[in-house]
Amino acid sequence: MSMTKKEQRLRRSRQTRVRIALQGAVRLAVHRSNLHIYASILSGDGEQVLASASTAEKEVREQLAGNGGNVKAATLVGQRIAAKAKAAGIERVAFDRSGFAYHGRVKALADAAREAGLQF
Prior knowledge:
The protein has helices spanning 5-23, 58-64, 71-87, 105-115, and strands at residues 27-32, 37-42, 49-54, 94-96. By secondary structure, the chain is of the alpha+beta class. It has a single domain (5-115), classed as Nucleotidyltransferase, domain 5 (2-Layer Sandwich). It has a 4-stranded mixed β-sheet.
C-alpha cells in the first residue's frame, strides 16, 4: 500500500496545519507546481484569504518573461506577498510550506518575504 508523491506531501503538511491552527496564527501557505509558485496569507481560522501572490499574476509574468518555476520567480513572489501583507496590516505569520521541502524555491520565497519585513 504505497502512497503517491502528492499523498505523501499532504500527509507531511497535516501536522504543520494542526500546529498553526492551535496557535491561531495568520498562515502564509505556499504551493509550488512545475510552472508556478503561489503564496497565500490565510486568516487564523483558515476561512479567509487576506492576501495572495503568484507567478500566474499578469504583472509578475511580464516581469519574468516566461519562466515562473525558478528561484528568481519565487523571490519576486516572496517580496510581493510581504508587501501585500503589510498593506493589509499583517506583520507576523506562521510559515506553512504545505509539505514541500524547505529548499530551493520554497526557501527563496520565505527568505524574500522575511527580508521584505514579514516575521515568522
